Amino acid sequence: MTGTQPKAHGPNTVRHSGAAYFGADTPAHGPAASQLSMRRHNLALVLRTVATHTDLSRADVAARTGLTRAAVSSLVDELIAAELVREGPMASSGRAGRPGRTLALNDSGPAGFGLEIGVGHLGACVTDLRGEVRVWRRVERANAHRDPADVLAALADLAADARTEAQTLGLRPLSPLLSVPGLPGPGPAMLTHAPNLGWHDIPIATLWPGPDTPELENEANLGALAELWTAHAPGNFLHVSAEAGIGAALVIDGRLYSGSRGFAGELGHMPVHPDGPRCTCGSRGCLELYANQDAVLHAAGLPEPTTTDPVTVLTEHANAGHPGALEAIERAGDALGIALAGAIGLFDPAAVVLGGAYAELGGWLLPRIRRQLENRLTVRPFDPRTVTASPLGRRGPILGAALHTTQEMLRNPAALGR
């Protein structure tokens, strides 16, 4: 292990996001412990100030935080030693005297590390503390119903390549967070339920080859957090994404809400046509039967591709004006609009963001979704124009995994020393 990352939150946790991550640890008891807790708080405060402002000197940080210059200087030295902050010359102001020096987040040193298992691909991503993507790897690979140990071995190889590339850039990826299309369990790195992979109760920690076992998080949750952390969404929004399955995540006041047992966001199994065909979940007419990528591909009369992914096939055919593809995507938009009308009526989000495959098909989906919302939310003050496609496309979950690591570092920089 090249560094110590605070453990990722479990699936039942309400998480802080954005600036809310920059809090202090829970205060300990006793004078010495209280002093240590205060120093950790101040360390995070200084790092937050550097992260959210540009061209600040040590004196500027002292003025903004209310800390003494001596305290700020000591804390900055500690952050520089941990490779979280760098100090460089200030641009010339034309004034006489000794030139000042400015502080900035380090673009080398500790870095966020995200991994991803999709139904049809594997991925790895490394981001620096500024949130910039520095390493990106994606391999198309059919993972559904394959031996989990085989899939994890391939992912571990991809992760090792990404780590090596990051190290050549002067980055030090910390423990990875793994995005999965399912529900992580209460145990260490346990994948409880991933129906689109055909996996149930898979002990990732036991099967992972080598050290640095990743923590797990649901892909829809990470996609929503990526939207929040990259400032593409407001503090209250519903994030809906799809590939083989359909997932949703609700962010309330900048926090991800996962429900009492971690099952919030199962939009794909909301019935949109109660008399429709039987779903694998046991219900009838679920959204996934009309609006996941395989359902749309089938409705379009297109064969399942063997050399590329279904979303690319659908996009290419829609761009070419293929009548079957266009009709199937529009029908999916109608079904999605029906489901969203119910979700919006229940949660009253400020916006809805379409991620994953929906983001890439947004040009055809959005008109039908908005029309359904206009017809069904006639007594509610919701503007259908606030339903938008994510600029992150299908990159959201793995980017959210990498950014989660950097957010944790920024929230609690003292953890790097433990």
Characterization of this structure:
With 418 residues, the chain is α/β, with parallel strands linked by helices. Helix content is 38%, strand content 20%. It folds into three domains: 33-106, Arc Repressor Mutant, subunit A (Orthogonal Bundle), CATH 1.10.10; 109-222 and 397-408, Nucleotidyltransferase, domain 5 (2-Layer Sandwich), CATH 3.30.420; 232-390, ATPase, nucleotide binding domain (Nucleotidyltransferase, domain 5, 2-Layer Sandwich). The strands form four sheets. Strands 3, 4, 5, 6, 7 and 11 form a six-stranded mixed β-sheet that branches. It starts with 30 loop residues before the first helix and ends in a 7-residue tail after the last helix.
CATH fold-level topology of the largest domain: Nucleotidyltransferase, domain 5
Domain count: 3
CATH evolutionary superfamily of the largest domain: ATPase, nucleotide binding domain
- Structural class of the helices, strands and pairings? alpha/beta
Described by strand count, sense and barrel closure, the largest sheet is: 6 strands, mixed
Reading the helices and strands in chain order gives HHHEEEEEHEEEEEHEHEEEHHHHEHHEH
Weakly predicted, low-confidence segments = 1-29
Q: What is the overall silhouette? A: globular
Short description:
This protein is α/β, with parallel strands linked by helices and 418 residues long.
